[in-house]
Amino acid sequence: MIKKYASTFLLLCCLNTVLSQVSKPTTLSELSHISIITSGSGEVLYEKFGHTAIRVKDPATQLDLIYNYGIFDFDNPTFYVDFTKGYMKYKLAKYPFYLALKSSQQDKRWVKEQILNLTQNQKNQFFTILETNALPKNAGYLYDPYFDNCATKPRDIIKEVLGDHLIFKDSFIAENLSLRQLMNKEIHQNTWGSLGINVALGSRLDKIATASEYLYLPDYVFEALNYSKVLRDGKEVNLVSKTIILLDFDEKKSENDVVSPFLIILLLSLIGLFITYNDYKKKKRTKWLDFSLFFTTGIIGLLIVYLWFFTNHSTAPNNFNFLWAFFPNLIIAFFLIKKTTPQWIAKYCLVLLFFLAIASIIWITKTQLFSITIIPLLILLGVRYWFLQKTLNR
Predict the structure, then answer these.
(1) Are 310 and 142 in contact (CB under 8 A)?
(2) Which residue blocks in the chain are alpha helix, DSSP H?
(3) 235-247 pLDDT, tens per residue?
């Protein structure tokens, strides 16, 4: 899979270079049109949200290009390091439109085209912005999945070109949702990808999204354009002059993983609860269970702290998952496997129980929504912490 996308990236780079070197029109003819291309969701995680791109077609000059802000390079030796640190380097690439359509055809993703209702001057201004942004020195940008991505770029260019003439309608919003709730509608919560994202990212995602912020998702860009208007000669006209279905595949449904996180966490939690019950009845303590729970939650907590304080991810700070994934647990885990366990750990467990109570309040008040798949784990942690503070106080 990685080789496939690396090869595609290299091919597009070559095409981009060739297209930039051949003679090309500096202005568009009256026959030209600029449209927003929206694609349905794909199979892999980063395709679940769909895709937005820009098409420029001019029959008079035989120009038919797609401008794609969603290109990234798996072959870059620092790609994964940069991604972890929050410096996700994406770029704009332009290439023949038929290649993009062929790719969607192969992946069985629906594709819709919205032709924008622009004046000739606005079309040329739009084209100039795209051409300038596609230059090698300008093509790269720091990607943010929620605030600066393939869907927000067309939105921003439309605003730049139309200025005060754009009448943005928010009628497409049926209910007030947060960025996290919008995300969870696209990715099934009972998947490992969703679990990882929800644990790694903080409460900024839980603020109710503005109408403009909805447009980090391609589907909402499509809907917003359909509702929006342009002020022309003192009258409101539709921003989209025509919508065309280019590929009519069924929408891919968001489904849970076969070996789902909830199933695995539930089974492990039930084993942990059974062991705790057995320990309580026999007045003993299973040290490997305590080590496993504290070490695992400590490692997750350490990752949360790293993402929060040492990376550039805009949505990683203020992550209340640290209340159950408390990184000092990583150290405490080694005290719990010693022959003699310090009694002060009983008080430490009371603090952890207090943190779990706060986490529950934060979840109920929707200050931050946690992944529903961790509910069995939180129950196990609460029961085990209670058991430990009772046992170690004896």
Answers:
(1) no
(2) 2-21, 79-85, 97-107, 120-134, 152-162, 179-186, 192-200, 218-227, 261-282, 287-310, 329-335, 344-364, 375-391
(3) 999 999 999 999 9
